[in-house]
Design brief:
The chain is an alpha+beta fold. The protein has one domain: Peptide methionine sulphoxide reductase MsrA (Peptide Methionine Sulfoxide Reductase, Chain A, 2-Layer Sandwich). Helices cover about 35% and strands about 15% of the residues. The strands form 2 sheets. A 6-stranded mixed sheet has the order 7-6-1-3-2-8. Helix 4 crosses helix 7. The protein starts with 11 loop residues before the first helix and ends in a 19-residue tail after the last helix. The relative contact order is 0.23.
Length: about 240
């Protein structure tokens, strides 16, 4: 179920219905600090992290519900130089918003995070991801959105990342950090495809949009509160796409 928006060009009738839903959601947020799904859990640091390599840039690909909020969180994290919304898990032909929204493509809405491992490690990226970017105990849903495209998933780009992710999930489950086991899947060998330009920087560009107010701004507040040393007030915005699929 997609309760956010349709791509421009969809039928006026459907778009009007979605706008009405967004207005209703925005109205219900008045006076609320955060919906229950956005209660943050400060997880412990990973017991095992990537060894220092001397690299100055690394990428992580993460999925945790609507990519607007996940992208917004990492754009406020120190050491991150870029966060791009996109699709991961399926093939190039179906890496489009309307197709992914059907929940049948294998894709998850995801974010490619580029960071400097000298400033923030891969394990610390995962700590933010588990703590404030989403609820990792939810299976195929986050907040008001449901479907496999909203699953909690880590797409490691190499063996070292896969090992860190596997050990971290096992650590959090063993310590019962969350009331329920983590639903996060680890899916190596998948290609990330950049989402349409109108999805990029959506939180930064639309801070008063009803969905953002209810579901995503609390994540930024939680990041600031739980990770003050990692938080930066000015988000790093996405570069303009250099090509069109």
């Amino acid at each position: 179920m997609n309760t956010r928006m349709n791509r421009p060009g969809s039928s006026t009738r459907v778009f009007a219905r979605l706008i009405a839903v967004a207005i209703a959601v925005g109205a219900s947020a008045c006076g609320r600090l955060a919906p229950a799904s956005e209660v943050a859990v400060l997880v412990p640091p990973p017991a095992a992290d990537e060894p220092a390599s001397g690299a100055t840039s690394e990428t992580a690909v993460l999925a945790g519900g609507c990519f607007w909020g996940v992208q917004g969180v990492f754009q406020h994290v120190k050491g991150v130089s870029r966060a791009i919304s996109g699709y991961t898990g399926g093939n190039a032909d179906s890496a489009h918003y309307e197709d992914v929204g059907l929940g049948t493509t294998g894709h998850a809405e995801s974010v490619q995070v580029t960071f400097d491992p000298r400033e923030i490690s891969y394990g610390e990226i995962l700590r933010v991801y588990f703590s404030v970017a989403h609820d990792p105990t939810q299976k195929n849903r986050q907040g008001p959105d449901s479907g496999t495209q909203y699953r909690s998933a880590i797409f490691p780009v190499n063996e070292a990342q896969q090992q860190v992710a596997q050990k971290y999930i096992a650590q959090l489950d063993a310590s019962k950090t969350f009331a329920s086991p983590l639903a996060t899947t680890i899916e190596p060998g998948k290609t990330f495809y950049r989402a349409e330009d109108y999805h990029q920087d959506f939180l930064a560009n639309n801070p008063t949009y009803g969905y953002i107010v209810v579901n995503d701004l609390p994540k930024i507040d939680n990041l600031h509160r739980l990770f003050p040393d990692l938080y930066r007030a000015q988000p790093v915005l996405s570069p303009v796409a250099v090509s069109v699929r």
